Amino acid sequence: MQLVDLNNDAILDIVVAGNGNWVMFLANDGVGRYDKVDSIQLSANVRCFALGDLGGDLDLDLVVGTSCDTFYVLQNQGGWSFQIDTAISYSSFEPVWDVKIADIDQDSDKDLVYTLRGNIHVMRNYGAGDFGAIRKYAPTYSEDLSLADYDGDGDVDIAVASTYSDNFAILKNDADTTFMTPVGYSISRPQDIEAVELNGDIYPDLIVVNEGNAHTYFNNGDATFTLDSTYSMYDAYPRSIVADDFDDDGWADIAAGQGDGSVAIFMNNGDSTFQSAVVYDRARDHIRSIESHDFDKDGDPDLLMTCADGFAVTFFENDGSGTFINVYDYAAGESTYDVCLADFDNDDDTDVGVVNNPGQNISLLFNRYEIITDVPEIGDRAGLPANFWLAQNYPNPFNPGTTIEYDLPRRSHVTLAVYNILGREVRLLVNESQSAGPQSVYWDGRDEAGKIAASGVYLYHLKADDTIEARKMILLK
């Protein structure tokens, strides 16, 4: 499930790929009501999908990998009209495990990367969605992809987890969609791999989880990695991980959702080492996905999980120190699977969209936290923030866009800009006087010229009157 503006009306719509052989498009009327406007039937069940402007016409196109060796490219004809442009079939009867859209060769056209039957497939876009021959790389049995500029040279490299080959591999980009020989790292049955900056040196590091453990691998600055530490999850079976600063000390912490329904929290000691896991057993069985976000706007990230068993999503409230004090279940459909966070009803609160696996439908959960908990004060400043506050962008890492939120305790002249790691301004997002209260800005991942920014670490810098704050974010393609 992804939230995008498909018909260019400045309102975010929904694209859902379900457990069957269909893709569904839902139009937003601007207040959180959605109508089905189209659906496309494919030859096999949808396994994975991604959205991006493949044709260079500012319309978002769709690529879909299926459970039975077929890979589709669907071109957006404008608005809600999609046409199957390419259907590549293989004879392996293997699933397309993962698919990513990224500018591999830095020509401003979006290229394709996907995994199938032990190979990474790369398709170069020569412009207007005209794809060249498929290049195949075989780092053993390839599944989950994580794309980032691992060697700091400005182009997109590949990390791939190979569960059935007991390793993960790094493929360095030669800047023309040619990748060097994969460098493998042995690890038993990795389940998830995430690029996260852990040790303060700007190069993306890796968190890899497998049966019962979370492993941190530090980037040496050249896309080679050194295993730093292994942290036990007490024989639980991790399914999904997320990194965020749960205790507001400036260092990324780790949360892992596990197969037995528990959640393991690893707090960073402030030196890129982590404490032993604190395990919460409240979630339902078989966590499928875990997301972090400040849902209650108190300045610290909370956790939200979807679970394969049960009819609910589970919310963990952070008390600000990285301790999760209140846990709530919210009713959804059967076997909640994938999740999307966004402001569906345009009320400046982050809502939750959930794909329900067997029912081939979605559930929308609208955030009403402020309505329930806020008690207005008497006076002209009722409900206004007490301090300036700049939130961590979400999602992070992100592709193609991300949301930046901040609070203003009084009317201020605000500038909000994005910078690359060399200190050069990439995009000026805000330069105006704004009223007191919560504010939200969306960055579409493009520079001032409208070109798609390269993957890597960026800074977003907020100046409001005499107050200056900045945070880091990671663009992955």
Describe this structure in words.
With 477 residues, this protein is mostly beta strands. It is 1% helix and 51% strand. It is built from one helix and 38 strands. The strands form ten sheets. A four-stranded antiparallel sheet has the order 1-2-3-4, with no helix packed on it. Strands 5-6-7-8 form a four-stranded antiparallel sheet, with no helix packed on it. Strands 9-10-11-12 form a four-stranded antiparallel sheet, with no helix packed on it. The radius of gyration is 22 Å and the shape is globular. The two termini are 18 Å apart.
List keywords for this structure.
477 residues, four-stranded antiparallel beta sheet, 38 strands, 51% strand
What gap, in angstroms, lies between the N and C termini?
18 Å
* Helical residues, percent: under 10%
Low-confidence stretches: 371-382
- What's the main sheet like? 4 strands, antiparallel
| Strand segment count | 38
Q: Structural class, from secondary structure content?
A: mainly beta
